[in-house]
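REQUEST FORM: STRUCTURE PREDICTION
Request ID: SP-0412
Submitted by: Lab K.M.
Chain count: 1
Length (residues): 173
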Amino acid sequence: MDNTGWFLSEVNPAKHSTLYVAQNGLTIPIPLYELTTYPDGGVRTSVSDLSKLFIALLDDGVYEGTRILDQRWVEEMLRFHYTDSNKPANVSLQEINSGLFWATKLDVTRIGHNGTDPGVHTEMLSNLSKDVGVILFINTSLSFEEMRPSFDISRELWKHAEALKNEERVRGQ
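STATUS: Completed
RESULT:
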């Protein structure tokens, strides 16, 4: 992960995307910034770098045949907090569950991580069998209503990823 860091000084400024805030029909650039709460979402990375971490998480800490993450760390990052015996009354495990890093998404048809800060929205989703995954970065803060086109993009990415997986299965037979 050569293009990843917690602080502005750790990533080449030429590799940063311009961040934007959508407001009153305008897309306004905002300056790059750092967060005092950087561990909760301030990592700066590329799709390529995040893909390496994502693949390792989906494969119990192994990337391209090499263990890069301790399996205990992976288990803790992906462990869901709620079980039938300890869930709050207002939580339905058929609708949502979450943990330190991982959560169920889309009515428990996907698992992954997402986050939003000014000028940034990230989604990293996998199917439940962990053999198909998609990462989407958006460099603009949008309202929920303005996010609708990104849902379409995410759906199309998902269809493409599933098609690639199906092609791989056909070639493997």
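NOTES: The chain has one domain: 8-172.
Reviewed by: T.R.
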